[in-house]
Every structure is written in structure tokens, then in C-alpha cells.
Amino acid sequence: MTTTYNRIAGQNLDRLAALSDGVFAVAMTLLVLDLRTPAAAAIHSEGQLWAAIQHIAPKLLTYLMSFLTLGIFWVGQQTHHSFLSRSDRAYSWINIVFLMLICLVPFSTALLSEFIDYRLALVLYWLNILAIGLALAAASYRARNFGLVKKDMPPDFESAVMRRIVGGQVLYAFGAALCVFSPYWSIGFIVAVQLMFAIGPRFKPFSWI
Fold it and tell me: Is residue 103 included in any domain, yes or no?
């Protein structure tokens, strides 16, 4: 059988992991660039400083939310890679799309922080998270169905991965739907979900994820 380029391309998991780490590091760093300290020339009292801090509070809140978002997806991708014996061209390109969507997070975060009272900004932020989750699910599907997984992995590990992805997206979608009442309700719920993911489920209703 003649070897084609597409059969041998993109098989190095280490290079893919290195690219992923670099993209996540840059995206996480870009988040903080949207934060600006109050102009010293405009501050002449403790009260003015406190008012200025309150003014930038939405940016601090969205920074926290997005940093947690990126941390959760980095852990998810890292966990999935640890179960693989190799990559292939399609899996590598799915992950490149995943990283492209990760790079959009600083933009969707800045949009939300600037227009935090607008439901459209919150919905666009959620769509960014949804697209990232779908890309991660597509990578999982590719790995499971095209022989990329290590032979000694437990048979139910992929169902655990998919429960985590689907469970997270369901909770994010519910959080986004709360913007019907207030974008702040959505943000508060999403941050609570992210903290739960970060420290691990401690509540029985969420133990399935």
C-alpha cells in the first residue's frame, strides 16, 4: 500500500500538547490586559478610588469567569490527551479548531465586560463556550472511533469524559438562559458552576459529572 501524506501527518501528541499549552497561556494572559487601573490624576480621595474600583468591577468579574473557563478546558484537554497513544491528522485539526475558539475567549470576555447589561453580549459569550465544548466532544469522538486511545484504558473512561462535557454544557446553557431575567444572574450561576468544576463536585445532584 502506498503511504500518503494524510496517513502520517499530525501524529505527534507532544507537539500538539506544546501548541495547546502556548495558546492557553497567551489567551489567559490576554484576559488581564483588559483590566486598567484607575487614572491617578482623577483620584483625589478614598471615596473616588472606591467608586473607580466599583466601575471596573464588571471587568474583574468577567476576568475571573473567563480565567476559570480556560482553566477548566485546559484540564479537560490535558486529561483527554493522557488517554491517547497517538494522534492523527484529523484529530490534530480538530484540536487546532478548538484552540482557535480558545483564542476568541479574550474577545468575547472583553465584549461582555463592556456591555455586561446586554443579553446579546452574554449569549455571544455562551456561544463561544458552547463551540469550545463541541470541538472538545468532536476530538473525543475522533479518538474513540479511530483507534487513538491506549489499549489498556478502562472501557467506561470515554463515557466519563462525555458526561463531563455534556454535563458542563447543559449547566452553561441553563446559566445563559437565566439572562432572560438578568445577565448578572447568568454570570453568577456560571461562576458557581465553574467553581464546582474547579474544586470537584461536592453536591450529590452533580456527582454524575
Answer: yes
Its pTM stands at: 0.85
CB 148 within 8 A of CB 88: yes
Domain housing 34: 22-206
Q: Does residue 107 fall inside a structural domain?
A: yes
Q: Is residue 190 within a helix (H) or strand (E), and if so which, with residue range? A: helix 183-199
Q: How many domains does the chain have?
A: 1
Q: State CA 57 to chain mean position distance.
A: 22
| Secondary structure of residue 1 in the 3-state scheme | coil
Which residue did the predictor score with more confidence, 28 or 38?
Answer: 28
| Residue 5 confidence (pLDDT) above 70 | no
| pLDDT tens for each residue of 110-163 | 999 889 889 999 999 999 999 999 999 999 888 888 777 888 777 777 777 788
Other CB atoms within 10 A of residue 24 CB: 20
Q: What is the DSSP string of 34-97?
A: T--PPPGGG--SHHHHHHHHHHTHHHHHHHHHHHHHHHHHHHHHHHHHTTBS---HHHHHHHHH
| Cβ neighbours for 58, distance < 8 A, ≥ 6 positions apart | 113, 116
